[in-house]
Amino acid sequence: MSLEEARALDRSDPLRAFRDRFVLPEGVVYLDGNSLGALPKATAARQREVVEEEWGNALIRSWTGAGWIDAPQRVGAGIAKLLGAKPNEVLVADSTSVNLYKLLVAASRLSDRKVLLTEAGNFHTDLHIASGAAELVGLRLDIAPRSEIERRIGADTNLLLLTHVHYKTGERFDMAAVTARAREAGALTVWDLSHSAGAVPLRLSEDGAELAVGCGYKYLNGGPGAPAFLYVAEHLQERLDSPLRGWMGHSAPFDFTDDYRPAPGISRFLAGTPPILSLMALESGVRSFEGAAMDALWLKSAALFDFFARLMDERCPELVCVSPREAERRGSHISFRHPNAFEICQVLIEDGLIGDFRTPDILRFGLTPLYLRFEDLWRAAEACAAVLRSARWREPRFAVRGKVT
Amino acid sequence: MSLEEARALDRSDPLRAFRDRFVLPEGVVYLDGNSLGALPKATAARQREVVEEEWGNALIRSWTGAGWIDAPQRVGAGIAKLLGAKPNEVLVADSTSVNLYKLLVAASRLSDRKVLLTEAGNFHTDLHIASGAAELVGLRLDIAPRSEIERRIGADTNLLLLTHVHYKTGERFDMAAVTARAREAGALTVWDLSHSAGAVPLRLSEDGAELAVGCGYKYLNGGPGAPAFLYVAEHLQERLDSPLRGWMGHSAPFDFTDDYRPAPGISRFLAGTPPILSLMALESGVRSFEGAAMDALWLKSAALFDFFARLMDERCPELVCVSPREAERRGSHISFRHPNAFEICQVLIEDGLIGDFRTPDILRFGLTPLYLRFEDLWRAAEACAAVLRSARWREPRFAVRGKVT
């Protein structure tokens, strides 16, 4: 496994041209696109236009003239393509946390059942939002270990909340099977797609998914804190009422009426005025996928994973891979366990290999097929091996964290 | 009242230099800064830096390296100066609608009382959000005419929700008096400052205000859909729990714990990840006030109002002013009633005078002292007079709205 082999793989990569769409700083190998996607070059130009022309010169007229007012639905329809959903089933709004709250509260009202079931060690914002929602609507939160989730779905389950690809390990649920299992038991499932959207092939309609939320700033390259999206299957839309009755979700927001009438369809899940600069950057990020089929991206992701996993097995056996090896059981990142993951991560970043640390002992690397080369991963494995062999991660400056062995 | 007089007023305006901080397109008189503030020139440069340097080159490292992670509190502290609040009492987060929801739900839990009192014809998102919150926490929404509000505050009033400056007429409540009246009756008041912040002098601490929300994209010049702010008086912060328990409001967001522990102080009102591009533009917008005291801005606002009101009385008597003439009873916009306000507004915009229409018959003009000249208002009155005297607003193209007389 040499640099030459990596370069040969890059030469035969059918997606190699997409890398040119992104700003990637010199001297950096960026394996954190699952936390903050890289800047598409088109976004830089587009943001200047949005700020300087649309806001600066056209001012308030851009709400209609530049299509700001329809952006939540329009960008949602763009994301729907990546999710295997209908264009009118996805909306961009607020943050993942806020969208999750809307769906949990709205969906919980469809049944008298009293349990909201979710996974221990789920991304914490999901657990916290669920606890807040459950408290308000009178549900009991049941936080179960991953291995027991399916068994616990029962006659008292109102909602099942799961993250499709685990933020730490990358483990992936079988969406079709779990959704069907819950539906048989009379429960609705809410999927968090934050580590899935733009990363793994999704077929929400085909898999019978009914409710989902997800993040705009990871694989969708929407920029820091980009607005999030939510998905509501068409057949459910008119049955759900958002608890956050903001004016943008009103059926006639410019009638300024005292009474609330939810907009038809997905638009009722809008709340307040969306952050347009961030929303336009997300639109541009979603466009960076144009011409790349999700299935082709996934093939490359799987190849990147296998290549990197083999390199790391060989050169960094101290780092224990905790992500599933079988492609269909994981997402597009790879994680390793090491007692000094924190210190190693800091030293790697100093060396220009950007991944991230997840407490207490996980070193996580995002494998983004749109802009990563096999050569980047070869360099990443070299950097890891060099750092592990050095004494730098044992330096006294890390003693403050009290974890230096 | 001639153009020369207007220009003389501009020459003696101590704030005249501030206009240079803004992009103001040629051939436009912009009287809609109360709906979307103009673009500060510094923001255009700053956005390039945020997008191209901080996101593009520094990538994920900017969360700490460029101060993104502290921006909600930092920008909040900047806004606090304009509100007469302590720096740790204001936070930037989400939209006005979502922030209002958080405060209503959180504050309602402090008492067993069952009524949420608000004003008929209040900005509709306030009424709708209030209805959604009231339904969930079991409050009854009492929507009373403005003249009856104070009388209706009683032993059953849990919360009073009022917009400080009315979005349509510009009428302003006496914050200190109303807050005191509610407090005497044992109720908390939530103020919506959307048309007040950056427009009228506010002294939240001095006036005993306890809870407030407001908008970033109007007088604060934060850009389209800029994130909103919320204010919680220090003594209440630890007693309130946000129903939206997003990870950013956790006491240790990077510990990724299953249990929720709210952050100390104002930070507990953060929910999900904030939209950084929009948030940085807001920071830049708030900085456009640097060096201008709110009291000086208000003096100019009042002078602009008086000058424009007199001009309009003289030249456009068909337009009936519905805003209070006494400065202390109003905000920084002026509104007129006319049965064809919609059509007149459209024709004025075509002529480069940008104000806005509010259903059913209001023509509204924002008077923003940071960047408006008396000369602009002289031209605005000329434009109004010319349009009213023309037949253009009676053209058949407007017949579709069925309001042409």
Blueprint of the fold:
Two copies of one chain form a homodimer.
Chain A (H helix, E strand, L loop, with lengths): L2 H9 L10 E2 L5 E2 L8 E2 H17 L4 H4 L5 H13 L6 E4 L2 H13 L6 E5 L4 H14 L2 E5 L4 H4 L4 E7 L11 H10 L3 E5 L18 E4 L13 E5 L1 H4 L38 H12 L6 H22 L4 E2 L11 E5 L3 H10 L2 E2 L1 E3 L3 E5 L7 H16 L16
Helix pairs in contact in A: 1-13, 2-10, 4-10, 5-6, 11-13
Describe this structure in words.
2 copies of one chain form a homodimer. Chain A has 405 residues and is an alpha/beta fold. Chain A has 2 domains: 3-30 and 292-401, Alpha-Beta Complex (Aspartate Aminotransferase, domain 1); 45-287, Type I PLP-dependent aspartate aminotransferase-like (Major domain) (Aspartate Aminotransferase, domain 2, 3-Layer(aba) Sandwich). Chain A contains 13 helices and 15 strands. A 7-stranded mixed sheet of chain A has the order 4-10-9-8-7-5-6, with helices on both faces. A 4-stranded antiparallel sheet of chain A has the order 11-12-15-14, with helices on one face. In chain A, helix 6 links the parallel strand 5 and strand 6 (140-144). In chain A, helix 1 (3-11) packs antiparallel against helix 13, helix 4 (71-83) runs parallel beside helix 10 and helix 5 runs parallel beside helix 6. Chain A is globular and about 65 Å long. The two termini of chain A are 32 Å apart. Chains A and B meet through helix 2, helix 5, helix 6 and helix 10 of A and helix 2, helix 5, helix 6 and helix 10 of B.
